[in-house]
Specification:
Radius of gyration: 30 Å
Largest sheet: 8 strands, mixed
CATH topology of the largest domain: Rossmann fold
Number of strands: 8
Organism: Crossiella cryophila
Number of domains: 3
Subunit structure: Part of the signal recognition particle protein translocation system, which is composed of SRP and FtsY.
Strand content: 5-15%
Bound molecules: guanosine-5'-diphosphate, magnesium ion
Catalytic activity: GTP + H2O = GDP + phosphate + H(+)
Helix content: 55-70%
Strand order of the largest sheet: 3-2-4-1-5-6-7-8
Distance between the termini: 26 Å
Protein name: Signal recognition particle protein
Low-confidence stretches: 12-16, 433-441
CATH class of the largest domain: Alpha Beta
Number of helices: 20
CATH superfamily of the largest domain: P-loop containing nucleotide triphosphate hydrolases
Binding site for GTP: 104-111, 189-193, 247-250
Length: 441
């Protein structure tokens, strides 16, 4: 994954001033591979990376993030922006019914989606009517009827006198029916073909002309990868659409199709389908898709949290103190609180790449123990925190009483603190950190 490959780049120290061109190039190279692996179309990758480089070159170096993390953050922000930023709401007709037409290849998931969308909108106080305009496949009408029944939404289907054999007539009659029966919303399911062909486009365009839809949703299987671009282009030219629905996101597709379709057609992705069941449906979340495409999972969350909490200047001071052997219990308390502000330690560890292998260790993190350590330090006076050497027997007794722990726990903490301090001094000596002349990058 990208996070694995970025590990070497991520080893860089925090920079100064501007991000270096080398940092940006190295990180962009990895991002480019990640995008291609996610099935983003090559021309889209190219223009996207060019844009990222532009922006990264002008960016101030963050105090909280290293250069690679910072580029990843920029990439993520741009990705979210391109994927649509805020989710667009459905275009409703001024005079009901609002007509939503579904278009896409056979097997894309139109009929399944019709039911999901109907249920979703019914839950928002709409009164949808499903319309069966796929008269191509023998079982298609029945399939929609089953879906409608599950969703609790009525289905308008062809029957004698109801435009049998002619999807355009069915569509027209359905709109009349919706007006009569006060449905404020009509969802028109249409036929697809296995590939793009002229007959399919003509039929879809005829239905479109007959019902004058407020939205045409292009339904596309996220698993078709690179083909999404040519299919989307064909549908845009042949029928035109106002929004995109991605289906089969429960599969292992990384979702680069989303980025490509969005970029190439300029139309927003509005809904996501992630399973065969009616409930497997969501409005589209650009941020979730961005992290899926990047394959960074929760690393992005971690970057965000690190930025919120991490005060680089403070850390710098700490590193100096640490090297000089001046670390105090007060510093320790502050750092511990800063880390814990990000959430339970086990969760934080769980977000790191490779957390799977550390499952057992993570499960053993005892938050209660950490609470007690904090309580002990809080029970100390500033002088004691600054110089734990002065904590004699009577002071230990007072702290134990004040923080509600046994004296042995205080002994433990103080001893471990001295051990850690000694070890850090040794390490600092070996790596030449601290003592006024810090070495960097
Ligand atoms: P249509 O030809 O475009 O109407 O596609 P269908 O709605 O009939 O779906 C084709 C197949 O894909 C069916 O077997 C559906 O159960 C399945 N399907 C549809 N949407 C999803 C989805 O989001 N995830 C998964 N795993 N399967 C889906
Ligand atoms: Mg269908």
């Amino acid at each position: 994954t990208l996070s694995d490959r970025l590990t070497s780049v991520l080893k860089n120290l925090r920079g100064k001033g501007k991000l270096s061109d080398a940092d940006i190039d190295a990180t962009c190279r990895e991002i480019r591979i990640a995008l291609l692996e996610a099935d983003v179309a090559l021309p889209v990758v190219r223009s996207f990376i060019a844009q990222i480089k532009e922006r990264a070159k002008g960016a101030e170096v963050s105090q909280a993030l290293n250069p690679a993390q910072q580029v990843v953050k920029i990439v993520n922000e741009e990705l979210v922006a391109i994927l649509g930023g805020e989710t667009r709401r459905l275009n409703l007709a001024k005079t009901p019914p609002t007509v939503i037409m579904l278009a896409g290849l056979q097997g894309a998931g139109k009929t399944t989606l019709a039911g999901k969308l109907a249920k979703h909108l019914a839950g928002q106080n709409h009164t949808p009517l499903l319309v069966a305009c796929d008269l191509q496949r023998p079982n298609a009408v029945n399939q929609l009827q089953v879906v409608g029944q599950r969703a609790g939404v009525p289905v308008f289907a062809p029957e004698p006198g109801n435009g049998v054999g002619d999807p355009v007539a069915v569509a027209r009659l359905a709109i009349e029916e919706a007006r009569k029966s006060q449905h404020d919303l009509v969802i028109v399911d249409t036929a697809g073909r296995l590939g793009v062909d002229e007959e399919l486009m003509k039929q879809a365009a005829d239905i479109r002309d007959a019902v004058q839809p407020d939205e045409v949703l292009f339904v596309v299987d996220a698993m078709i990868g690179q083909d999404a671009v040519s299919t989307a282009t064909a549908f845009q030219e042949g029928v035109g659409f106002t929004g995109v629905v991605l289906t089969k996101l429960d599969g292992d597709a990384r979702g680069g199709a989303a980025l490509s379709v969005r970029e190439v057609t300029g139309q927003p992705i509005m809904y996501a389908s992630n399973g065969e069941k009616l409930e497997d449906f969501d409005v589209f979340h650009p941020d979730r898709m961005a992290s899926r495409i990047l394959g960074m999972g929760d690393v992005l969350t971690l970057i965000e949290q690190a930025e919120q909490v991490f005060d680089a200047q403070e850390a710098e001071k700490q590193a100096q103190k640490l090297g000089a052997g001046e670390l105090t219990l007060e510093d320790f308390l502050q750092q511990m609180m800063a880390v814990r502000k990000m959430g339970p330690i086990a969760n934080l560890l769980g977000m790191l790449p490779g957390a799977g292998q550390m499952k057992d260790a993570i499960a053993q993190v005892d938050e209660k123990q950490l609470d007690r350590v904090q309580a002990i330090i809080r029970g100390m006076t500033p002088a004691e925190r600054a110089d734990p050497k002065i904590i004699n027997a009577s002071r230990r007794q007072r702290i134990a009483k004040g923080s509600g722990v046994a004296i042995s726990e205080i002994n433990n903490l103080v001893n471990r603190f001295f051990d850690a301090k000694k070890m850090m001094q040794q390490m600092a000596g070996r790596f030449g950190i601290g003592g006024g002349s810090a070495t960097r990058g």
